[in-house]
Amino acid sequence: MTTARRRVIVVATGLILVVCGVIALVLTLQSDGSPRSERTILDVEIAKQRVAHPRRGMANVHSEAWKRVSVGPSDRDIDVFFIGGLEPCNFVDHVAAQESPKSIALTLFVGNDPRTTQFCPAIGFERVVHVKLHDNVAGRPIVDGATSATSSAGG
Do 82 and 25 belong to one domain? Predict the structure, then answer.
């Protein structure tokens, strides 16, 4: 290969790298020149699936510990917060509520869509499911039926 040809290849390669760098920079900036904060597809899915809606009939249903609860102003509406995965790999099948005069036991049951054949990533994020009790909480402690841990919101 001649020296002139090598120079042309080196210059052309350099120009291609510069052009690619400029394109990459332009794609990461908004029209006003500030950095673009792109939400990933995963971020969008997590935002859409934050609120869980129970669906009976899931496969591999098992109890799952929840992290905390929040009692609503009606004293009958409870938000149960837990760490869950992405659907269709992780659905809330149902929440069992056992109310007694002295306490309330909430057991979260999760499973997966029996029809799914896709890969399930091991990703966990905070989710919430809404539960409506038959009676008011009225100061009763709320216990996790899966672990017997008592929530601070219940008492």
Answer: no
Q: Are residue 126 and residue 52 in the same domain, yes or no?
A: yes
Strand partners, 29: 35
Centroid of chain to Cα 5: 55
Mean pLDDT in consecutive groups of 10 residues from the start of the chain, 155 residues? 71 54 48 59 75 94 96 95 92 96 96 88 91 96 91 57
Specify the pTM.
Answer: 0.69
Domains of the chain: total: 2
Laid out side by side, the sheet with 68-71 consists of 51-52, 125-132, 77-84, 68-71
Q: Are residues 31 and 95 in the same domain?
A: no
Domain range spanning residue 1?
A: 1-38
Burial class (CB in 10 A: 0-12, 13-18, 19+), 82: buried
Residue carrying structure tokens 């210059």: 11
